[in-house]
Description:
The radius of gyration is 23 Å and the shape is globular. The chain has one domain. Helix content is 83%, strand content 0%. This is Oligosaccharide flippase family protein. It comes from Azospirillum melinis. Keywords: Cell membrane, Membrane, Transmembrane, Transmembrane helix.
Amino acid sequence: MLKGLTGRKAAAKRNSFARHGVATVLVTAATMALGLLTGILVARTVGPDGRGALTAVLTTVQLLGWLFGMGCGKAVTYALSRDHAAGGRLLSTWTLILLPVAAVAIGVGYLLLPTLLAAQPAETLALARLYLPMIAMALLSELMLGLILGDQDFRSFNALNFLQPAGVAIVYAALWATGRFTVEAAVIVQAAMSTLVLVVATAVLVRRHGIGRPDPALGRQTVWYALRTHGDVVGGVITQRLDLLIIPAFLSATQVGLYALATSLSWLIVSLSGALATVVMPAATRRGQSGRELVLNSLQATFAIGGLLGGGLFVFADIAIGLVYGPSFADSALPLRLLLPGAILYAAASILLNGLYAENRPFTATLANLLGMVVTLAGLLLFLRSGGILAAAIVSTVAYTLVFATAATLYRRATGLSWRVFLPDPAMLAALPRRLFDKPAPVTATPAASPAGPAGK
């Protein structure tokens, strides 16, 4: 009886995670659709030059936020997944840690911007400097969303992630309809929606956990976890976005705009097929060793989604870009095709890296992205000036492939699993539709049979 009850509970957990995973993928798909809508609007309204300027401003500040984030999101997710009572103390402790870090990040950004945007006009540099305080919002938002994930509150997490692009799309459309859409207006809208998400997330957490007394011991413990993850965060950010950070210093705004379109389309594969990675870490952490099955099933689902989407984009890249974005973006098709294989592998790598976080191996996860960072940095410095955006695309795909190969090797070593378990399980794939869409039966204890057997016997 006990064995049957345990099995039903395990099945219910798998089905619950599958539904949360599907919801996350669907929300990500809706977010991507909104991103495409706003991207089309920007491309059609301000052209490659305007898109390049907007990309330079937003990406530079976003990257600085990631680089100074200290891995706080992963650290608080892990800590809260292990101890739900720590929510209020984590909130207050990490807020006090991040505020001075944000001040340093803003100062560093102010000094670096003239170099990072060397090939851009003075107006773009001035706008980027005005946008720099949003680094503080980015750091605090990472904290709040990490805590919501640690609560296993995937519904609120998905809703907050949808709120910002939905709001941006609505306001962008209103500005376009009234003839007031400019790069400056777009930056203001992004800042306003980021602030709104932070305010809502903070209100949810304060209502749920309250504001606890800052806990130095908890701070030291989680900072140590965070610092071990930060190398992975930094390496991942550099591997993913160093091309867009470096290109504005060497190439014209038009080339930046063309490459930004290619990367944004390829990154749709990472965002959608890798959406499960966001919920894998807290769910696998709470499940312990049984979370490994969840990681492997998520890996296989990621490959399936990525292969389907990437194959379609590869075949129809020219047609899609021409119809949606216009002929001025036709030169984005080849960089997009070069980026797609690496994007699929990087999405799969994100599952395995989050699996390592769940195994309390954050520094091990760092090694994969550090390798990708080294390859990306060396390749761009060697080939970007002569090869332009095509060289940037090739270097990125090579780096993404190495990150996946390294992540798979490290996850296998950390868990002691055989390579065979990484292959798709036909039984799991056959049962997947039922897990996703069937309502699970309630998990109840089965009454024990009478020692004498049924009555009348």
